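Can anyone check this?
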Amino acid sequence: MTPPLKSGDRIRLISMTDDPAPIPIGATGTVTELYPQSGWTQINVEWDNGRSLMLSIPPDVVERIESPKDAPAC
């Protein structure tokens, strides 16, 4: 089981539903705030492309990715 997202986590968008101006699939960003609700979570994300748009999980789907500081050195 994957641990829940937390502020500061880096994410990549897998899918987003029902938004008239969605974030592009594959976009990456940093979780800034989480608002747990009954059966879902609203997540504020600072997207790397400069946009700011909240996610609703579910139905939106993201995956956690390594932050640059966690990436192995080459």
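Reply from J.R.: I decoded it. Residues 31 and 45 are 5 Å apart (CA to CA).
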